[in-house]
Amino acid sequence: MRLGKFQLFLNAAILVAAFFLHSQSFGNIKVNFVQGKIESIQDTENDSVAIQSISADQVLPYNQLICSAKGSRAEFQVGSIILRLGSLSVLSILDDQSFFLQSGSMLFCFLEETEIKLSSSVSNAIFVGSGTILIETTKNGGFKFIPLEGRGILKTEGGHNQEIKGGRLVLVLGKPSQLGDAYDLDLMLLLKTCRLINSYPNPLATFGRISLAVYSQELKLKGKYNALIGDAATDTSLQVWAFGSDETEKE
Amino acid sequence: MVPHISKYGAANLTISLHILLNFMKAVSIFSSLSLLAVTFSSGQTQREVRNRIEGSNRPDATNQISSANNAESGTSSASASDTGAQRPVILKNKGISAYFGYDTKYFYRSNPLATDGPLKQQATGMWTNTFYAGSGLGVFDYADSVVTPYIGASWTSNEYVESEIDSFNYNSTGAYALLLIQYGNGWSARAGVSYANDRSADNDTEDFKEFQPNIGVMKSYTINDSANAIFDATIGRHLAESFVIAGLTDGAKTASEKELSNTEYALSYAVNYSWNEVIITPKYRISYKDYDKGLNDGRSDLSHDLSLKAAYPITESFKLSLFYSYSTRSTDGTSVSYDYKSYDAGAGLGINARF
Question: Does the global pTM surpass 0.80?
Fold first, then answer.
């Protein structure tokens, strides 16, 4: 009888431990919103891959590849960070502070100072601060770092540190990574055309701060170029599309 | 302040008032009360000038800042990836900016001298021309706010078209220093000091001047895609000086050149509707003024202003507008009635530049 009780207790302890271990491996990625087709790809024990459609309110483990189809988008809650994934993007959330964007675009939004590690197929950087930040990969394997608003420092392993500024695009390129040229962007136009802002049902918690950054930029505005910044095919070139003329490339 | 009341040209005032008052003092035959009566019967123009001063619409510093800042609101609808269109811009290092502009208005005013009685009294056309300039002294970003100090000045000529009252033509000078604090939640707070001065165009005499320290808050919010609303609340102390008829009394009160000084509390609510390219702005403002000097000690005014304005931008910096406004004021605490009602209707052109 006594042995039976002990076995029951042991089984309960094992179950509780298994539950917590299982929770740990699932991490804390909550799916807030899904539009279109979003899939996760995960290695399984027998070396095959498991592909799963993601829907709202699911909880996902870390280290999966999360892929969005054309015109599809999703929003995740990772700890205190709101993460939005753009269309035609491939992302892996390594832990609650490390994000690998294979291709496409994403948006971070966090109010409290946080350290996040960003990486793309070639480059990586660390951001310490808070803000609303757009990340877009470039053909050269690096990425664009575009804070809509925020405060903090962007660091690379190449030893470059730069204080971020609302509306200022910084290119992260090369390996070891360096910070490339910075460009002030028309924040109002960016906001009006940014699907990572406008294609989601819930407004971001930092919307007031974004408005303030737009207001501040309007007051400092001296002029606008008749051009749009495009992709960075190599570390030394950046596509700049002039209005009403053929594609031009800036060296 | 030097009174040059006789120069305002009323036919019934043939000798200057200060000579009359000196004469009265010498012979000492009038009591204060009779002096008051004489003044009001033979010196209607003093009241009229005073009423004109109190009924004046002065250029608004925040409007000038706002119209200058709106000069570059145009954006294209270009779109790229999910990230959005990335158009490079050039920013000023410290955000120091300057603006200047010119507004001209031609309008009908039903009661230009703000006289008690019917809505239409001595109705006239008015032509005003305002030149203004100002500067933003930098843009300072803080955690949850953006602070911008402004200074500016304006000069306005105010001309009455009707020849019967064109002797009341006056020129106004204004200046301001303003600290504007904008918050991310749409509220802004401001604190500043403004100066205003009216000079008679015919006589080149200073009829009125005031300093006005003031604080205020404003909240703007979006109603829908084509409309936004602006709520404004302000408290200001008007430290005014104007000409005065020396020796006038009313009971225990004695005339003072500071008697137009008052504390003003005002609320306003405006909605900006975009209709095609026209901005239509209905606005309501309520104001309570509490006077505490001279003959006005204990006086309080309650004013309501209702206006409708349609502005069409011909170019980015050139604007045509049509407007209508109705104003009414009711006064308590004085033996003389300062109640009035009046309306304006007219058109204006404005040009401004920002650099």
Answer: no
